[in-house]
Design goal:
By secondary structure, the protein is mostly beta strands. The protein has no helices and 45 strands. The chain is elongated, with a radius of gyration of 46 Å. It starts with 5 loop residues before the first strand and ends in a 9-residue tail after the last strand.
């Protein structure tokens, strides 16, 4: 029962009764007396939680012959009413999936855990501050359709409420990755606002800097403060100045929208506080990791490079691997190196932190992968000793412990053919290639530049052709008939065979024109002549004609 909650009492004493409870109003009758029946007793809101309140039922006419209260001649009965404590405990809620910082795409399953000492009334889910859905009646999952969203960072917040109105929230940031288009071009990735830092303070005129990567190239980056555009930058480093004195002190969203050369877009956003009330404006420094690039695969000794600046001067730059300091701090030009042989294979964070003269700092962190393992490759196609004509399918299977960067097919006399994603295959146009054997090397390269190759060859050999040149099809022949045919093949004809009405009559071997004399039978009949050429690869060609054997009529002299 809460403060101010009505308590329902049933009076069955057979007499008028006065209700009074710790300052509660008296009975509901005109004379202040309560009639028999059900009545509401309101517990005063100023009573302490968990307090036991006394309710006195008073016999206003004792001894007048009316019904007596329980207990005989007692003038009153005391009833205890206990007021439970008010619910002031907040519920608990957490976003179980996806994880904070996770990259998601398409239909994303958002899973929650929530609990309360009394019970969860509802859970509201927000995407970048906009209510997306409300879960009730024990629901703990929601499918978030990110299709059509611009690639970028989004804030997911789950707000849980109990029946008393107490609330608690959990929030995470996820990165939505849009699908590649039909041409295979993917949206920009690794979009980050390098400076200022999220949650930082700025003053005066501040230079905002952003970085991004793309498979085809960055066309431009547009900079926003709130909904106001500061303009675009089309060349790296991508920066734009912001005169914070033109806005009131307070919190602002800084946002960049990256457009690649295929008009695919991605964004990143942070929140900063403008504070121009300081006596002397001294903004934090800015720093950008120039080498290696975000997402790089590394092996051996790696060169590290950064660009840093500050309105009053950069004191030093410090490099850290997995938050462990790497070597001594460096000064301009802020170059260093990292010997990865002492680092475990796998994913690591690499950070450059710049410090200014008053020890303000800024950092740029990327993720890299140490990879010392070679990839593997196996030959799939073309098949050995199989003759190919005007096209050849080149195919390999390749694998790596982390990532296969590409498979390159090196064909003798041709430009290399590069395939960057599985299945690693491509069609070679061989229509202009002469007959013969061609060397082929298939090379797989992983993200760290390790490579392995497999060598072989393949055969270009087009089928032969053959054609009767004599006798003519459909003509009449008799006597000894010379049969002529012309076989051709790009690597030479191995044999030519002649059959008449399905019976083999002659086979010759080697290239060149074919001729054979047929002694026709002395009978009028139509015959089918078939000639077949076979080349060195076993490929065949056939030509067929019909001739009529018809001897002329002769007359004897008497």
């Amino acid at each position: 029962m809460k403060k101010g909650m009505a308590v329902r009492l049933l009076l069955v004493l057979g007499l008028s009764t006065s209700l009074a409870a710790c300052g509660s109003p008296a009975g509901d009758g005109a004379d202040g007396l309560a009639d028999n029946g059900s009545h509401d007793l309101v517990v005063p809101a100023d009573r302490a939680d968990g307090q036991t309140l006394d309710l006195n039922l008073v016999d206003v006419n004792p001894g007048d012959g009316g019904a007596e209260l329980p207990g005989g001649d007692l003038d009153q009965v005391e009833v205890d009413v206990w007021v439970p404590p008010a619910d002031t405990q907040n519920p608990q809620v957490s976003i179980v999936a996806p994880q904070d910082g996770e990259v998601v795409e398409g239909a994303v399953s958002v899973t929650l855990e929530a609990d309360d000492n009394v019970g969860i009334e509802k859970i509201e889910l927000y995407v970048d501050g906009t209510l997306a859905t409300t879960l009730t009646t024990g629901q703990r999952e929601w499918t978030w359709d990110t299709t059509g969203l611009m690639a970028g960072n989004y804030l997911l917040r789950a707000m849980a409420y109990d029946a008393a109105g107490n609330s608690e929230y959990d929030e995470i940031e996820v990165f939505v990755d849009s699908a590649c288009d039909l041409s295979g071009d993917c949206p920009p990735k690794s979009v980050k606002i390098v400076t200022p830092v999220d949650g930082g303070k700025v003053c005066g005129t501040y230079t905002i800097e952003a970085v991004a990567q793309d498979d085809t190239g960055i066309a431009q980056i547009e900079f926003f403060v709130g909904d106001d555009s500061l303009g675009v930058d089309q060349t790296s480093p991508y920066t734009k100045e912001w005169n914070t004195k033109k806005v009131a002190d307070g919190e602002y969203e800084v946002r960049v929208v990256v457009t690649d050369t295929a008009d695919q877009k991605a964004f990143a956003s942070i929140t900063v506080t403008v504070d121009n009330a300081v006596a002397v404006c001294d903004n934090p420094p800015s720093v950008t990791l120039d080498a290696p690039v975000d997402g790089a695969y590394l092996d051996g000794v790696v060169a590290l490079g950064a660009t840093a600046s500050d309105d009053k001067g950069v004191l030093k730059v410090r490099y850290l691997i997995d938050n462990n300091v790497l070597g001594p701090d460096v000064q301009y030009p802020y170059d260093s190196s990292w010997d990865t042989t002492n680092t475990d294979e796998g994913v690591h964070s690499l950070k450059a932190t710049a410090y200014d003269t008053v020890d303000q700092s800024a950092e740029h962190q990327i993720t890299v992968t140490v990879d010392r393992t070679d990839p593997t490759i196996e030959w799939v196609s073309p098949a050995a000793e199989t003759p190919y004509h005007d096209s050849v399918m080149l195919e390999a299977t390749a694998s790596d412990n982390f990532v296969v960067a590409n498979v390159t097919f090196f064909v003798q006399g041709k430009e290399p053919l590069v395939v960057t994603q599985s299945p690693f295959k491509t069609l070679l146009d061989s229509s202009s290639m002469q007959a013969g054997y061609y060397d082929l090397t298939m090379t797989v390269t992983d993200g760290a530049g390790h490579s392995q190759s497999v060598d072989g060859d393949f055969l270009i050999d087009r089928p032969p052709t053959i054609e009767f040149t004599a006798p003519g099809s459909g003509g009449a022949v008799w006597g000894d008939v010379e049969v002529h045919a012309t076989p051709q093949d790009d690597r030479g004809v191995q044999s030519v065979s002649l059959s008449i009405d399905g019976s083999s009559v002659n086979t010759s071997y080697g290239s060149g024109a074919y001729m054979w004399t047929w002694e026709t039978p002395y009978a009028k009949k139509t015959y089918t002549l078939k000639i077949e050429a076979v080349d060195a690869s076993g490929q065949t060609a056939v030509d067929q004609i019909q001739v009529n054997v018809d001897y002329p009529v002769t007359a004897a002299l008497l």
